[in-house]
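User: Show me a protein chain along with its predicted structure.
Assistant: Here is one chain, sequence first, then structure tokens.
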Amino acid sequence: MTPYLHILGMAAVLGWADAAIAASSGGRVISTAMTNSQMQLLFETQSGCSYQVQSCPLVSTKFWEDALPPISATGSLTGALVPRQAPAGFFRVLEFTNGVFWYDWRYYYEAPFLYAWGLGSTQNSYAHLDRSYEWYIDQADTGASAENNCGPSSVTMGIRWFNQGFNQTAEDARNTYTEGGGWWYTSDVINYLHLYSVPNTTSSFTGTDQLMGILNQSNLLILCVSTAYLTPDSTDEHRVGRFYSYAGGHFLVVKGWRKTSSELFLEVYDPNNWHATYADLTPKGRNRHYAASDLANAIAKWWNYLIVIHPPGGGGGGTDGSAWLKPVDPAHIPHMWGR
């Protein structure tokens, strides 16, 4: 029983949120108990909001699975019984602010580490288009053409975000459009999305407000940028800036934003990782933050367009319903490469 006592304590810790930091209240675990071989969680809620209980065998893996279907709150406290067959270990509760975005309370709990991460001293708001399953890809693991596989890696991440059941790999994408093992072009990314019927729009780029507007409408972004315009940052535990020496054309995925006392950051999945990790063993390219001003410059100076993946089930503004999208015909624009 002793291991479970440790787990119960950690469950409460992982659910904690500082009201001064969190954008809303909810998800804080108040109490935990074992009953009939089930884990009972009691957590703070807001009536009308939805909550997701997740579990993780080892907190250091940062890989969380849904332990229950989403729960709709009708009061200020909500209880949940987690089946024993759920992955044993640690528990957290996420609060949904709409159908796609949610606050990850682990990040709020770790807010005191924002400064150590190079993100500033306090956090004003944070939102991201994440999934409860793993969809990050390190291009180092993508076969013989790995050095040039940022495009295949980014588009495969995009399709996995759209469709959890997608089982093709970045190496499969490379083998579909081989390009002689060399650079992929933006046209290859667009063609591959169309090949698997993933709804997408190619849009002209107008600025950082546009990036946030498109993300806030639940769309994912694939960019082709010049990393030469991303400020380098080699401090081991910093989550900001370019952590590698390569400076040139590159594909990456933008999946959220974080506004802190320092500045506005865009949260990305950068495949150019090559097994680089922080002390907690999470990949440096996973949830990396680039200053919004840097990323805007990196877009404008390389390929001044965006590839926008619309969310499953429709929505995302579409080509007719979003003031942020400035659609262009991919057949009538120049295309650029990334590696």
